[in-house]
Amino acid sequence: MNNYGIPANALITVAGTVGVGKSTLTAALAERLSFKTSLEQVDHNPYLEKFYHDFERWSFHLQIYFLAERFKEQKKIFELGGGFVQDRSIYEDTGIFAQMHADQGTMSATDFETYSSLFEAMVMTPYFPHPDVLIYLEGSLPSILNRITERGREMEIQTDRSYWEHMHERYSVWINQFTACPVLRLNIDEYDVNDPASVDAILAQIAAVINPAKGA
Ligand SMILES: Nc1ncnc2c1ncn2[C@@H]1O[C@H](COP(=O)(O)OP(=O)(O)O)[C@@H](O)[C@H]1O
Ligand SMILES: Nc1ncnc2c1ncn2[C@H]1C[C@H](O)[C@@H](COP(=O)(O)O)O1
Q: Among its keywords, does the record have Isomerase (predicted)?
């Protein structure tokens, strides 16, 4: 247990749509808690850029790749005994991305079924403890689109606005039905990762979600 009342072996997962600020918050929380980070690797992903140019051709390959990467990360978190802040949950791969492409017809029904059965088989292993808390970052679409632009990944900037609109909407439906672990919702206009007092306030909220009985 640290000064914030958060167990040293906790698993904190940060969720939310592309560009909302997950990686930035993950790094800030991990630094403050002296936790390790589990980050999404974008630069060495062999499919991501191809996927943005042709969803239909590459969506299955990309989902399998992300699933394999997240499984390796889960295994590492499990073997090291927790104490991690994780950038994006595996629940979003299936519940948002794979589902969205299946619904839009950019992933075939057969591919989606194959992906889903692999996902379920992986989740049933001991390597998949539920997070102690899932921090859900939410904000307005215009703010998020500005962040995507400012970050400057060309493949995302070139992607049609309707893709991000659809994803933003899907996330808001998804989180309202999410029950796999406790959720802490944070509005991106209501914290500042560069302000230590603001990060402290988030840590107090995390502790309160993890230890509800203590009213932390
Ligand atoms: N709290 C914040 N205030 C202002 N800009 C932010 C904040 N958090 C993230 N950003 C910026 O928004 C962009 C996307 O953030 P990032 O953490 O990479 O998002 P994600 O991991 O959710 O895709 C980056 O340019 C980052 O510097
Ligand atoms: N499961 C996924 N399917 C498709 N695209 C995905 C998936 N997970 C992440 N992505 C994309 C979205 C972004 O372009 C990058 C990184 O995500 P971010 O939310 O910026 O961390 O990968």
A: no
